[in-house]
Write a sequence for this structure.
């Protein structure tokens, strides 16, 4: 309907559309006959957008208003009238001009750089955004070769070849563009293919977006991810990245030259500052941080110029020096000496002169024999060996020591499950009176029937149990089982009143209510308190705080006997003996070793050094026995292996003894058999 839709008759079946001369060339626009010649290159917008027909197909035209195919520039029907043909042509030209204008505005005003490129990689046309991106004018870029703007190095040749051959429609890549002022501009480039009417590749269109700031931000984030913010050294992640790369490169590329075929080697010096926690606590963390910065600076400067050496902060006060192409363990130990030397000089930090040392763990091996994780794990373990050996030194990894450490760790991990599975058992060693030869009691000694390592003695796992805290549930089990067994002996041999002696760890006092545990065990088993003896070492008994003393006093008030184990090897504070709730002193076996020699009367002539020691041990034991008796305590000796030792101890006044001379530790039935016979068979086994 006229007036309802302006230009509607432009696509009416009776309207004639004239063929546009612009189809003669892709870059030739539709011209107004009165407009004069065009100025400058003008790109066909539809062609540049990859969505139009080309000059090779002029006979197939579309109406710009209704997209109807035109035959010889027209579409007609029976209602066509010659007087309407000129009006249709004018409307067609106007529509084409509007289309050209829209594209020109989109192309020129786009904030993303755009460039149309010919098959020889020369620029046909660019928009102002592209030119401004590299600091040039639009006109000077026309006919410029693409390689003058984009470095061809690193271009995806395969993808580009697939694009120009029509096997790919587009690809994206991040590239650096060359700015007029000489610096590089990081850009995200999307290259699309423009085809002709037959579908063959004709031009390429590049869309370019400035991502320089994003790249800078990414670089900053990557630096922060791989560097310690305090010391600016590479961090743990960077260390492992470098180590992984070294191991991977060595696997893929064997050593060149004479060593071809031989495996490359890698080494680590893992160091920890000695006493750093004390500096933090005494002077504050801000001083500790400045000290870490000073240490990092000294280490970094000490290894400048070594491309195969990486100094990293692993966390806290731990650092590491990685050697990615090691020449052997000797090189790494020399490196460890160099580290200790660098840290010898005092550090002047915020008005404080600080002296710091380091313990260093050294590991060096072939990359084919290890993994990055195992290498660092062993270096960390070796570091703590160095601390245990005295600090301010380096220690080289020892596979045998490492295997022992691994076994310890496996045992520590398996302790609690082993208790649940019933792998522990108790053996008993008789405590024999030296005056009458009768069995007065028995010490309970726990054993671990390990499915892999066999029967383990207490010294193999009790320290681990104390470290891990498993000693608390294990100690409760031993206490209750021992009380139950002593109750059975009392039931079977009521006249003997044989007591049971149970070792007590200091952690059982600190981490558990030992008084309640003992009361519960006595109540459950029905054992009188006087038949339970608890052994505790001097170091645990006289440690800091008053809790052990309070607990032992409560136990003594219940009627439980308290014995100090290994007396003479701990604090040996004799002033405590008059105030402690103690009933028995158990002399350490080192005092009994001198009793293995013959008695003084059997050694004619001048005494040798060994005999002088034997005499001294005998005098010391005699003095301790007299002191104990004066304080109302009894004395037990451990480690008796012969009749001569037993006799000499009896002469000192020692009350009871235990050892292989009387009986080896064994099942509860062994003690029952001895009680039944009245005395042990003294065969000196």
């Amino acid at each position: 309907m006229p007036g309802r839709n302006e230009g509607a008759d432009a696509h009416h079946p009776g309207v004639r559309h004239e063929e546009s001369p612009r189809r003669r060339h892709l870059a030739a626009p539709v011209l107004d006959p009165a407009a004069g010649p065009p100025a400058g290159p003008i790109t066909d917008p539809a062609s540049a957008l990859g969505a139009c027909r080309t000059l090779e197909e002029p006979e197939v035209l579309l109406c710009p208003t209704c997209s109807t195919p035109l035959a010889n520039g027209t579409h007609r029907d029976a209602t066509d009238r010659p007087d309407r043909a000129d009006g249709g042509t004018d409307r067609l030209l106007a529509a084409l001009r509007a289309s050209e204008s829209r594209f020109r505005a989109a192309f020129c005003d786009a904030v993303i750089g755009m460039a149309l490129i010919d098959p020889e990689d020369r620029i046909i046309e660019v928009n102002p955004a592209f030119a401004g991106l590299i600091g040039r004018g639009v006109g000077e870029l026309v006919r410029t070769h693409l390689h003058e703007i984009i470095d061809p190095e690193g271009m995806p040749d395969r993808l580009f070849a697939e694009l120009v051959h029509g096997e790919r429609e587009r690809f994206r890549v991040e590239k650096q563009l060359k700015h007029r002022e000489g610096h590089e501009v990081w850009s995200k480039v999307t290259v699309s293919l423009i085809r002709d009417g037959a579908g063959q590749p004709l031009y390429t269109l590049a869309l370019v977006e400035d991502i320089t700031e994003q790249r800078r931000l990414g670089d900053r984030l990557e630096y922060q991810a791989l560097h310690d913010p305090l010391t600016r050294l590479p961090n743990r992640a960077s260390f492992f990245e470098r180590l992984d790369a070294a191991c991977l490169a060595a696997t893929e590329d064997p050593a060149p030259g004479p060593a071809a075929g031989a495996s490359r080697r890698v080494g680590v010096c893992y160091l920890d500052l000695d006493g750093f926690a004390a500096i933090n606590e005494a002077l504050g963390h801000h001083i500790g941080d400045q000290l870490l910065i000073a240490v990092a600076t000294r280490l970094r400067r000490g290894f400048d110029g070594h491309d195969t050496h990486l100094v990293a902060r692993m966390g806290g006060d731990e650092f590491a020096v990685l050697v990615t192409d090691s020449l052997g363990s000797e090189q790494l130990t020399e490196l460890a000496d160099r580290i200790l030397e660098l840290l010898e000089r005092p550090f002047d930090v915020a008005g404080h002169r600080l002296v710091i040392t380091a313990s260093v763990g050294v590991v060096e091996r072939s990359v084919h024999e290890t993994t990055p994780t195992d290498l660092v794990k062993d270096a960390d373990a070796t570091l703590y060996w160095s601390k245990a050996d005295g600090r301010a030194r380096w220690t080289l990894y020892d596979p045998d020591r490492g295997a022992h450490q691994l076994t310890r760790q496996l045992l520590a991990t398996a302790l609690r499950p082993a208790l649940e599975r019933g792998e522990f058992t108790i053996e008993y060693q008789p405590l024999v009176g030296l005056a009458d030869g009768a069995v007065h009691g028995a010490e309970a000694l726990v054993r671990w029937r390990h499915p892999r390592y066999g029967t383990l003695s207490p010294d193999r796992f009790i320290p681990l149990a104390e470290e891990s805290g498993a000693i608390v549930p294990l100690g409760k089990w031993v206490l209750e089982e021992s009380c139950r067994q002593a109750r059975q002996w009392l039931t079977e041999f009521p006249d003997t009143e044989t007591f049971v002696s149970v070792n007590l760890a200091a952690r059982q006092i600190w981490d558990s209510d030992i008084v309640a545990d003992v009361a519960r065990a006595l109540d459950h088993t029905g054992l009188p308190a006087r038949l339970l003896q608890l052994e505790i070492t001097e170091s645990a008994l006289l440690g800091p705080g008053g809790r052990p003393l309070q607990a032992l006093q409560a136990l003594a008030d219940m009627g439980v006997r308290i014995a100090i184990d290994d007396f003479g090897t701990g604090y040996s504070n004799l002033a405590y003996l008059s105030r402690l709730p103690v009933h028995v002193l158990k002399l350490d076996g080192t005092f009994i070793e001198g009793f293995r020699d013959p008695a003084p009367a059997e050694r004619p002539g001048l005494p040798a050094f060994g005999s002088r020691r034997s005499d001294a041990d005998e005098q010391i034991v005699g003095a301790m026995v007299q002191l104990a008796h004066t304080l109302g305590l009894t004395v037990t000796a451990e480690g008796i292996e012969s009749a001569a030792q037993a006799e000499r101890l009896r002469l000192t006044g020692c009350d009871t003894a235990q050892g292989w001379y009387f009986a080896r530790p064994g099942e509860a039935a062994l003690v029952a058999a001895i009680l039944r016979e009245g005395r042990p068979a003294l065969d000196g086994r």
About this structure: Confidence is low (pLDDT under 50) at residues 1-68, 76-80, 257-261, 602-610. The two ends are 127 Å apart (CA to CA). DSSP finds 22 helices and 23 strands in the chain.
